[in-house]
Protein: Cytochrome P450 2U1
Organism: Branchiostoma lanceolatum
Amino acid sequence: MFFWSDMFPTFGSLQVILLAVLCVIATLVLCGRPRNLPPGPRGLPIVGNALSLLKGVPGMSVYANWSKKYGDVYTVYFGPMRVIVLNGYAAIHEALVKNAESFSSRPLAIDFLSPDEKTLGIVQEPFGPKWKDQRKFAIMSLRDFGVGKRSMEGKILEEARALGEEICKKDGRAFSISQMMQNAVSNVICSIVFGCRYEYDDTSFKDLLKSINGVLGRNAKAFFATVIPLLRVLPSVRKSYQDVKQYQAKLTNHIKEEIREHEKTFDPNDIRDFIDAFLLESKKRQTDQNSTFTEQEHAAIVYQLFLAGTDTTSTTLRWALLYMILHPDIQEKVQQEIDSVLGPNQEPSMVHRSQMPCTEATLAEVLRLAPVVPSSVLHATSNDTVFRGYSIPKNTAVLVNIWSVNHNPNLFPDPDKFDPTRFINDAGKYVKSDKVITFSMGRRVCLGEQLARMELFLIFTSLLKRFTFKLPEGTPKPSEKGIRQGIYQPVPFKLIAEQRE
């Protein structure tokens, strides 16, 4: 009831009439289903099935219950938008890998991943030549600036050291590491995109992070305003939606200002960062009237790199530290392994991963148990297609339920238990599982997966080499079940960091 009273406070006769019209439109949309769609639960007028997803751990328990009734492929509605839900590894792999030509597009509806609801960038661009061209360029540029290479390790370790110094300032006092962690991870993206890092107390850096948090932390009303635009006539919905749009504008303006500054000092013989690389490519193609390397696309892609690469990785690291303070025996095993491999003076490197199976298994279990984007960015069908006997029209949204794979008891017994040993074989070696699909799969697999894995390993090992993390004395244990605020994240918690000798 609270949600409804918050969504619909006292309103006048005009708004009542508008809501009545909305009900009629939504009913017509829901009744006009194409034949032979996958089955699915009945929805309510206006909102469809969206309200049901407000229940349980990020709505995933609801998806699981629907899957038991309707199978691994079923239909739901987010407002008037029809969505096909894929559950389980077999269905997801069959769609995204075996039928990639049909399931690698994006829905027509634009969400917060477009800075202006017009420019699509890489993340929102439908499957086709433009998307292939832009994604290929982005992957090559990220590699040029060190992703997957030893040069990137130095930038990540620099941030790990800066983060460690900030932690030391707490001098054994209880604190929340959330903001510090975001500072460190965001600075890695800044070094790739802007060619610089910021001090943690820098005002423009704080504004940048505030804007990112404002976009990613959107509430349910802002979500409804996106999928059902007519709901924006309601004051409380309009306010939430406008707040997100303001944060989008601030983030975009910051990026455009950086691009303008780069243009002033641009040297084609000295490509300093991703912005320079894009400027160079756009100049190479300036005689091509069909070039997609425009100023708008430039800003949109950088915008998406920040959203995709900041909060997701920093939140995963917070999950990792939460599990360490809740499972001190595992933390101690990881530290013993770090000490045996690195010794007292050596910093971690990606070449050490193969020598650290316990650490690798622990991070794999974090990614499995707490996927920060548990249902992936919406896919869409590229054409009219038949999948498992069902007819799915072109441009139909497709939700990939990553949670249903990572938490499948048939794949991972006792799936809600934090147990890194599930990735260790009898010989004590780490065994990677392709059934952990936190970064999705197929052609739309996360562009930043390699960078994220580097950051997770290097920052996590650096912190545990230097500190032991504990709960403040007398503090009740935080829940291992998270909350959905834009992404899936742990409940707010404080910790103590004791320096190790």
Notes: The chain has 18 helices and ten strands.
